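User: Here's a chain of 329 residues. Predict its fold as tokens.
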Amino acid sequence: MQPLESRSRCHPKTLGKASSELLPWNAPAEAQTLASKNLHILLRFLVVIAALATLLESSFAQPAATQPTTGPSDPFEADVFVAESGFKLPYRLLKPIAPKPDVRYPLVLFLHGSGECGDDNSKQVIGNVRKLFGRDESRQMFPCYMILPQCPAEGSWTNGKYWTRDHAQPAEPSKPAAAVLALVESMLRNPAIDSDRVYVFGNSMGGYGTWEMISRRPDLFAAAMPICGGGDEAQAVKIANVPTWAFHGELDESVPVARSRDMIKALKDAGAKPRYNEYPGVGHKVWSKAMSEGDFLPWMFAQKRSARPLTSTRPTTTPTTKPSPIPPN
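Assistant: Prediction complete.
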């Protein structure tokens, strides 16, 4: 016959019992206490091991797909426009919350800056634009269709060296710009969109792009709002009938403030009455201030192409100093 101690430790019915029961009946109390402590330590160790295993499993799990966020959580839907040339232009589309079949809605085009170039179809939805247009409150007050194309990393909304002190607009648009105009034309085939209320605005490279768009197609746009951009002053006569509200920071070191000042002067010389906000002491990142203007959206949505007035709202801010000469690059 096996000794009592051996039978107590090995019998299957005793394996799940407390450690104090696995000791002989006559084991000292100190031994039973030590065995109990050891069991508690072992259990804690097993819990730690299980937690580490879970952590390692999650670390080596297959990463989620990096597709743009779409669906109910993001009102800016992702899509890709393919031009006749085959050029692919990723863009986001914002629609009215509850479009009515008997109502025609404005179309807003936003052109991003160079920092948002790429092909992820996400970066171009910058925070200020998302806040201004994506909130339910704004969508209720100013329902519209909105497109936000993304320029490829190696491309631009304009052709040529637009970042210099001045530039002449080339005869042909860049591939991304041509695709944007084609996208706008395709959107206008939607009977729910009002072709008399097509607006364009953009910041930095998109500010240049805004001047570019209305210079290429002054007949297409009801209003333009270029932010810290610049254009070809020779186009001023052509775009004098397009209501324009421009914005720039006085201390902009990326895009010289003279680029906006020169365009505003050229428009006035052509008989137009553009609106211009220049922010004293502010540098390049002026789009937050521009889009925070209380009448930014009311002014935009009040414009209509069929009216084509040569009168815009009086400038709220005028240049405090004359444009300083900028050395050639």
